[in-house]
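Need Transcriptional regulator, GntR family with aminotransferase domain's 3D structure for a figure. Predict it.
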Amino acid sequence: MNKITIDKNKNVPLYIQLYSQIKRFIENGSLPGGYKLPTIRSLAKELGVNNITVINAYKLLEQNGYIYTKVGSGTYVCEDIKKEEDLDESFKLTDQGEIPLKKGIINFASSSLNPELFPVEDFGDLINRVLRRDGGYAFEYQDTRGYKPLRESIKEFVKKDEIFTYVENIQVISGGQQGIDVVSKALINFEDSIIVERPTYSWALASFESRGAEILEVDLKKDGINLEELEDKLKKFKPKFIYTIPNFHNPTGIVYSEEKKKKLIELAEKYETYILEDDFASDLSFTEEKILPLKAYDKYDRVIYIKSFSKIYMPGLRLGFIIAPERLVSSFLKAKYVTDLSTSGLMQRAFDLYLRENIWKNHIEEIKQVMKKRFEKMGNGLQMLKNYVEFEYPKGGFYYWLRLKDNISAKNLYSKCLEKNLLIVPGDMFFAIKKETNFIRLSFASCELEEIEKGINILKEVLEGESNENGIYLPII
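Structure prediction for Transcriptional regulator, GntR family with aminotransferase domain:
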């Protein structure tokens, strides 16, 4: 077996170090399907650790589908690991709206709005105005920090959310995902620890893993992250940052309480770390309650604030921004420069007018009206499924997060729904380590009301079949 190194001076638990290395060897093909792993006793002796360390690592690998045990024979690497990963990657791409869908499929997976809802006419007029005004200069490379008039417009735009910053702290980026990548490049070195919510956004996990980060999960409660568990990990591991989606969380839809937002910032200051706030949907609130970003409470300059304009305005726009703590501005600038020099000048100039002239306000109100009707339609339909699922009503965003009852497998459900032309997302892709297999995420972003009704009926039909297969018999009422 490949050389495994255990560092007892690191703040990462020994079993996690062992799990991560074996997982990596399996994923890159160094340990092929069918390979017999060393016995617990022999591997523990070789590495100089106790048997419990190896037992816990093997248990975690088995829970996540990397290995299996034959009683009386040994522990082996599972076959077709790559196929399973490819399936997960397809789920992630579907979430980004990047998988071609066959005609007639009902898409409860994608977060992308229908193209008919994009402000095409307004934006077309703005692009023509920019071209008439700036001519060829609109196509020049921009300052890596971003087109300064746009950064000035962003500075004014975020005041509605009680964020007060300087133009110099604003970095224009090519969408929210690039923002996560820029922060990862700037702050994460190999095997640095970072903390994420459990569950969390799958593409953020992918970005952190690509930098070789040790990912530490902290459970979410109904009002936000578990603060006791978080503080315990902050003490032990001294992470580079905490990644969080405090408003209309992806995938759960949770909104942090104001008290928890303030306490989270206090903990970041106490333990001298940063918070990476991913704000992808705070504009899409279905309540009259004023819900502010975490950054609005940031009196210590500990929050790295990322906002994307892609989800709600136009996915192909690929535009967003970072508001950086003053200490990190230059680091993010260097990371952005290495990534792609600068974001499209034409799009930046057009969006500057879009914000500066408050054209965005009408669009947001129209989108909220459409999305709220879809949100209510899906919520009403899900009431029919209470025998099979548990869920909470979100206050905004795009998603319902469902826990499946009676040990129904989310991936089996995914496959059977797909056979009936309904696309859903199994929840295990939103967990970093010990994956949960009985959750699904449903999005109403890209479906008309009639499609939502039809899709819920398909889901009900499949769930009824799954429950009966599991031996569950419901009373006639």
